[in-house]
Amino acid sequence: MKKLFTLFVILLLAQIGKGQSCSSCSINITTNDTSSYTIGAGQTLCIDTTGNFTGNIILNGGTVCNNGFFKPNTISFTTGTINNLSNSILKLNLTIDSGKIIFNQAGAIMSVDGTLTLSGGSLTNDGILNINQGLTNSSGTFINSNIINCTQLTGVGSITNTGVINAN
Predict the structure, then answer these.
(1) Per-residue confidence at 14, pLDDT binned at 50, 70, 90?
(2) Is residue 91 exposed (0-12), middle (13-18) or buried (19+ Cβ within 10 Å)?
(3) Using one digit for the tens of pLDDT, what is the confidence trace for 16-29?
(4) Residue ranges with strand state E in the chain
């Protein structure tokens, strides 16, 4: 029963996030898309509520705004912003250093299938953030107002935490 309730809450939170939208889109994905994109400064790749992106991304100063399903096959994240309003799965070890920003909005779910290291960038979690391995907070802006699940939390950086951080 507890698992069923947890699943219900996750699905409910995911639907709440669907009311938000992306704007100023340079590229708008509305269906299944396996293409490769380079997103530079001033550009925004938008994934609409009906969009499912599983292609390749080079994020070099622009923004990915996800309101659908964002599961890139590969991602090169040099600078820029990932704004997750829905469901994202990042299959990599992710380092958020200077010039990199991640927003996981209210009602959104983001999964990182490796480690996540905050090292001078900005991480704001208002949704559910699942990290398969460790979360290291060395420096940068780290704000959590909802739920983070990880295997281990380490580092000397400060955290503004009004939510829950579950670390085994």
Answers:
(1) very low
(2) middle
(3) 444 468 989 999 99
(4) 27-29, 32-33, 36-40, 44-47, 52-53, 56-66, 69-70, 74-84, 87-90, 94-97, 100-104, 109-112, 116-125, 128-131, 134-144, 147-150, 152-154, 160-161, 164-167
